[in-house]
Amino acid sequence: MSQKDTYKTIDTSPEPVLFKDKNSKFYGYIFPVKTEENVKASLEKLKKEHHSARHWCYAYQLGTETITYRANDDGEPSNSAGMPIYGQIQSFEVTNVLIVVVRYFGGVKLGVGGLINAYKTTAQLALNDSDIIEKTINNDFLISFDYKNMNKVMRIIKEKRLTIINQKLELDCQITISIRKKDAMDIFHLFDQLYEINITKIN
Question: Which residues are in the Impact N-terminal domain (predicted)?
Fold first, then answer.
């Protein structure tokens, strides 16, 4: 069985969605995130924007092969907010996303079942509104070589249509390339067998 080397995510945040139940308002936001710092920054921004809201419940998932996730009820009854939001992230099979549901209390208690439904539905609406895209899981490699070997290296990069992330072309040259995971070992061997050219895996 071949290893999966694609994942689903979003690149941009759509407009927030609104779900209402018994006068309570639930605003659903979704953000593309890559690190916990991104998560923190997005939450801080929303808390400033909705400073009079009662709850900012959220869930996020990071990573493609090693997964990190967190679900937060932010003062709502245990497992009535964060986990229903996270359940939708799993259901849509997306990663590197943060969903925040901002609640304005409408004066009528919804009960745990009502809350679970409200948070789950708001997260679902936010995901439905998102442009979900498929990306490849890539490995990055650093190629080091002398300037005189430039043509050999560039020929392979061109032939194999490799993505250059970074390059330093001086007497000592360094090029960082990104290769789709399933092709990574083949490309690695192509460079590795070249005389005077060094290739190392970065991630």
Answer: 22-127
